[in-house]
Amino acid sequence: MKMRKFSEEGRLNEDVILSIMQEEKPNQVEQFKLPKEKINRFFAPGTPAQKIESDIVKGLELLRQGHKIYKLFHYTDWDHTVFTSVFPTR
């Protein structure tokens, strides 16, 4: 479509062709597929695909934040102090 437009306008040349050929086309974007049977239990029947996708992304973002927080406090002096104050050893 773009090449035809540029050709009709008399502006089609090697640089334009190369530029168009290097563009990422919508059907070339890498996608990840997940069987709906694996995630059905997390969503109400009839939930739109866009909502499911956004909820999954939000969940993954929260998971990443949780891991960062866990790593920040895991096996630190503060963590040890809190743990031993809550569960003192004999």
How is the secondary structure organized here?
Elements: H1 2-8, H2 14-22, H3 36-39, H4 49-73, H5 77-86
Using brief descriptors, characterize the structure shown.
elongated; 90 residues; mainly alpha; 5 helices
Summarize the structure.
The chain is mostly helical.
Describe the structure.
The protein is mainly alpha-helical. The protein is built from five helices and no strands. The N and C termini lie far apart (78 Å). The model has no long low-confidence stretch (mean pLDDT 82).
Structural class estimated from helices and strands: mainly alpha
Low-confidence stretches: none
Shape descriptor: elongated
The ordered string of helix (H) and strand (E) elements is: HHHHH
Rg to the nearest angstrom?
Answer: 26 Å
Proportion of residues in extended strands:
under 5%
Number of helices: 5
Mean residue pLDDT: 82
Helical content (DSSP H or I, runs of 4+): 55-70%
Q: Major β-sheet, in short? A: none
